[in-house]
Amino acid sequence: MRSRRAGAVLVAAVAGLVLSACGSATEGEATGGGAPSEQASSAGAQAPSSAAADGPGGQAPRVSDPVDVAALDRDPCAALSNSQTQERNLEQGESEPMSDGSPTCIYRYSDGSGSRVRFVAVQEFANGLDDVYARSDSLAVFEPTEVEGHPAVVTQTHQDNRGDGFCDLQVGLTDEYVVSLMAQVTESSDDYPQGCAVAEALAGDMIHNLRGGA
């Protein structure tokens, strides 16, 4: 078994990541949890911040401190700043719309491992994370979590592939706007198999960046 040093993305501070709330991914699947690439989203406004039931099929927790998503509407690669990608040893993001028109941005590792994380502004989720919760009974993995105070859910459509470096993380930026982070960390990366730690670290970076802190 080969030893692993700090990974390309996780080399920055990763303490405090919730590693237990992870999901899997496989390129090309639609939202609700599935793949490190394709899903759908919805541009959204802000809604009141009251707690909500979070059982299967129930309403998702409210976003108590929504961020301004206007930059993502203009450019999905506004998710991360140049300084953040450099710090995380990622290449600059590449915009690549999905077949349904959902804006996406792919950030590839600069270590040559083929690992990457796709950010998708999920147009299908017009009701934010409520639409993810409504699908919970049909998902192989549905694990609510939180990133920087924002409600989030780790999902997987057919099976749990987290042990293979995949993770799908749905993050509520507002009550009506979800970004899906689809991590695919390969065995040749020092971050393997920590796809969920990578997704949560980059989700936190995105939130800080959209708040003007990066």
TrEMBL record:
Keywords: Signal. Residues 36-54 have a biased composition (Low complexity). Residues 25-64, 76-107 are annotated as: Disordered. It holds the Pfam family DUF3558. InterPro entries: DUF3558. Residues 1-20 form the signal peptide. This is DUF3558 domain-containing protein.
